[in-house]
Amino acid sequence: MKMQSYLGQARSLGSTKNGVHHWWHQRLTAIALVPLSLWFVFSLIGLADADYAAYKDWLGDHGNVVFLCLFIFTMFYHAVLGLQVVIEDYVSCEAKKVFLLVFIKLIAALMGFASITAVLRVAFGG
């Protein structure tokens, strides 16, 4: 039985360090994904029966390239933030936690880089 108040127990756990920063980034990316996702879905609906040449013409518009790259970056960053919270909250083994955090960040960076590279290659002469 501990002789410490609940407030004292909570204080002894330490600070979250960058909890507010992380929370704020997750909310900002979620808000940014709303218009970007709507733009992406409506753009794909407009190109539903299109061939490769039509997609290439669509990506010829530099505004579409910028929005698509922003969508890809924001989507992967938001996914990493969400997965990081789940891993930090539910994985108890510290070694597994560190491995998974590094793994998801590496995979997201590689997939994001590959996606943006593919978009740029198609847009600028691929």
Automatic annotation (TrEMBL):
<dbReference type="GO" id="GO:0020037">
    <property type="term" value="F:heme binding"/>
</dbReference>
<keyword id="KW-0812">Transmembrane</keyword>
<keyword id="KW-1003">Cell membrane</keyword>
<dbReference type="InterPro" id="IPR000701">
    <property type="entry name" value="SuccDH_FuR_B_TM-su"/>
</dbReference>
<protein>
    <recommendedName>
        <fullName>Succinate dehydrogenase hydrophobic membrane anchor subunit</fullName>
    </recommendedName>
</protein>
<comment type="pathway">
    <text>Carbohydrate metabolism; tricarboxylic acid cycle.</text>
</comment>
<comment type="function">
    <text>Membrane-anchoring subunit of succinate dehydrogenase (SDH).</text>
</comment>
<keyword id="KW-0479">Metal-binding</keyword>
<dbReference type="GO" id="GO:0046872">
    <property type="term" value="F:metal ion binding"/>
</dbReference>
<dbReference type="GO" id="GO:0005886">
    <property type="term" value="C:plasma membrane"/>
</dbReference>
<keyword id="KW-0813">Transport</keyword>
<keyword id="KW-0472">Membrane</keyword>
<dbReference type="GO" id="GO:0009055">
    <property type="term" value="F:electron transfer activity"/>
</dbReference>
<dbReference type="GO" id="GO:0006099">
    <property type="term" value="P:tricarboxylic acid cycle"/>
</dbReference>
<dbReference type="Pfam" id="PF01127">
    <property type="entry name" value="Sdh_cyt"/>
</dbReference>
<dbReference type="InterPro" id="IPR014312">
    <property type="entry name" value="Succ_DH_anchor"/>
</dbReference>
<feature type="transmembrane region" description="Helical">
    <location>
        <begin position="65"/>
        <end position="86"/>
    </location>
</feature>
<keyword id="KW-0816">Tricarboxylic acid cycle</keyword>
<dbReference type="InterPro" id="IPR034804">
    <property type="entry name" value="SQR/QFR_C/D"/>
</dbReference>
<keyword id="KW-0349">Heme</keyword>
<feature type="transmembrane region" description="Helical">
    <location>
        <begin position="98"/>
        <end position="124"/>
    </location>
</feature>
<dbReference type="GO" id="GO:0017004">
    <property type="term" value="P:cytochrome complex assembly"/>
</dbReference>
<keyword id="KW-1133">Transmembrane helix</keyword>
<keyword id="KW-0997">Cell inner membrane</keyword>
<keyword id="KW-0408">Iron</keyword>
<comment type="subunit">
    <text>Part of an enzyme complex containing four subunits: a flavoprotein, an iron-sulfur protein, plus two membrane-anchoring proteins, SdhC and SdhD.</text>
</comment>
<feature type="transmembrane region" description="Helical">
    <location>
        <begin position="28"/>
        <end position="45"/>
    </location>
</feature>
<keyword id="KW-0249">Electron transport</keyword>
